[in-house]
Design brief:
- This protein has one domain (about 1-145): Nuclear Transport Factor 2, Chain: A (Roll), CATH 3.10.450.50.
- The protein has three helices and seven strands.
- The protein has helices at about 1-45, 50-55, 70-80, and strands spanning about 55-60, 70, 85-100, 100-115, 115-120, 120-130, 135-145.
- Strands 1, 2, 3, 4, 5, 6 and 7 form a seven-stranded mixed sheet that branches.
- Helix 1 packs antiparallel against helix 2.
């Protein structure tokens, strides 16, 4: 009788751990989607403190023209006010979590101007995020233009 009770207890424990892991994964996914959408809001509101906080110190971004920028270069460009974003929307999220690392992909649509020139875009973004010091930060980003038909 004891082996059966042990086996049933073990099955319940394994099932409970699996449910908890699934719930935690969904929670992390929602946290990362919130971070990405917060980044959009910060771009529109010109909230540089928020952006500075979510970009890791060793952040590297590659834009859709292949230009690579460090965090310092990205923040300097934003501080200079060269680019004005009036609308930014993310859709079609896919979040894959690997412990304290995650890959977030989505479609990004923006209305923006840089030095008076229209820079509105439709892009696919891949962000690599790492949990550093208890919070998620973006360590790498890559953008690719989606061809307009």
């Amino acid at each position: 009788m004891k082996p059966i009770i042990f086996a049933v207890g073990l099955v319940i424990l394994v099932f409970g751990v699996a449910v908890l892991a699934g719930t935690q994964s969904q929670s992390v996914e929602q946290e990362l989607i919130k971070l990405e959408n917060g980044w959009n809001d910060a771009l529109v509101k010109h909230d540089l403190a928020f952006i500075d906080g979510i970009l890791a110190d060793d952040y590297i971004g590659t834009d859709s023209d292949g230009v690579v920028s460090t965090k310092a270069q990205t923040m300097a460009r934003l501080k200079a006010g060269e680019e004005v974003v009036t609308s930014a929307v993310n859709e079609d999220f896919r979040v894959r979590v690997y412990g304290d690392t995650a890959v977030v992909t989505f479609r990004y649509t923006s209305k923006s101007q840089s030095k008076g020139k229209d820079t509105s875009s439709l892009e696919r973004i891949t962000d690599t995020c790492v949990k550093l010091g208890g919070r998620w930060q973006v360590v790498a980003e890559h953008a690719s233009k989606i061809a307009q038909k």
